[in-house]
Specification:
Structural class: alpha+beta
Order of helices and strands: HEEHHEHEEEHHHEHEHHEHEEE
Helix content: 25-40%
Length: 308
């Protein structure tokens, strides 16, 4: 039987590439020994019809193109070094729209203190923005270097953007988060310095990221009550006929960091954080619901080629 890429999805395609390349590290970024430190490099492509909501401004498109790449640097605990921008545009795009995109890129570069150092342009049938972010880090945080009984911690609330994608009213925190997410670059450096044992950024949903972090013989347990899901959030999700836990666990786009750290090192954190669970040896990823029941979390999240 002949398979299409949609039959296996993005993650399996990436696994194929990694399996056939001896130089790729299966983590958030590439890591290259450089001048006594490590060069951290990552690239991410955004396509208008797939990644930009219809109510997103051209400015915010440009800003997000930087954010998604910087977020990978944050997950490694890296300091930003430079940003490369490749952009393909329809030939009939209004020039002012192009300028707004670039204004968004430059605004984000200024916000994250990462200079725009080069790139490329081309023509396409829709807006395509591909960024490459470079950083430096002496000891990068990896996804699977945690220990049993480490705490599982978030840098902020999750599920906010997921709810915002389903709302039309612009003047609320949910839509604002969906249209202009912020990467946790400074937080990434601080959690590394505090002694975090592993980390990744939440782009495809908490559940998907935990499965990316999981290694044989270890598991995770998280607690619904520790996620801090507000009554307002639950009411809005119910009004939209959506499962609030599905939004929180399986959608993503919050660009918060999920990381592990020992209880002793937790006191070293100089940032806002939320402890949501711990590392176990169960070999499962589970959630303790508010009613006390324990459910295994399904491995699903946003994935190119198979997600609508």
């Amino acid at each position: 039987m002949t398979l299409n890429v949609s039959d296996i999805g993005e993650k399996e395609l990436v696994k194929y590439i990694i399996a056939n390349s001896k130089d790729i590290i299966p983590d958030d970024t590439a890591i290259t020994s450089f001048n006594g430190s490590n060069l951290i490099s990552t690239c991410d492509m955004l396509i208008q019809s797939r990644h930009f909501p219809k109510n997103m401004s051209y400015f915010d498109m440009g800003f997000k193109a930087v954010t998604v790449n910087v977020s990978d640097l944050a997950a490694m605990g890296a300091e930003a070094l430079g940003f490369l921008l490749s952009i393909a545009l329809p030939k009939d795009l209004n020039l002012d729209c192009f300028k707004q995109i670039i204004d968004g890129v430059l605004s984000a570069c200024d916000y994250y203190s990462i200079p725009l150092i080069g790139g490329d342009t081309n023509e396409a049938s829709e807006i395509i923005i591909s960024g490459t972010a470079l950083g430096l880090c002496d000891k990068p945080l990896l996804k699977d270097t945690y220990n049993k009984d480490d705490l599982i911690v978030l840098t902020g609330d999750i599920g906010i953007a997921a709810l915002g994608f389903n709302l039309e009213e612009m003047n609320n925190i949910y839509v604002k988060k969906a249209l202009k997410p912020i990467a946790r670059l400074n937080e990434g450096i601080q959690i590394k310095n505090a002694g975090a044992t592993s980390a990744t950024d939440i782009t495809d949903g908490l559940a998907s990221e935990l499965y990316e972090m999981k290694k044989d013989g270890f598991g995770f347990v998280i607690y619904e009550e520790k996620l801090g899901i507000s009554d307002e959030y639950k009411r809005i999700a119910n009004w939209l006929n959506l499962d609030y836990l599905d939004l929180v666990l399986h959608v993503g786009e919050d660009f918060e960091l999920v990381f592990t750290i020992s209880e002793d090192n937790l006191r070293n954190l100089g940032i806002d954080y939320k402890v949501i669970g711990k590392v176990t040896d169960s070999d499962k990823i589970e959630m303790v619901l508010e009613n006390g029941l324990v459910e295994e979390i399904k491995n699903k999240g946003y994935e190119h080629y198979v997600s609508g």
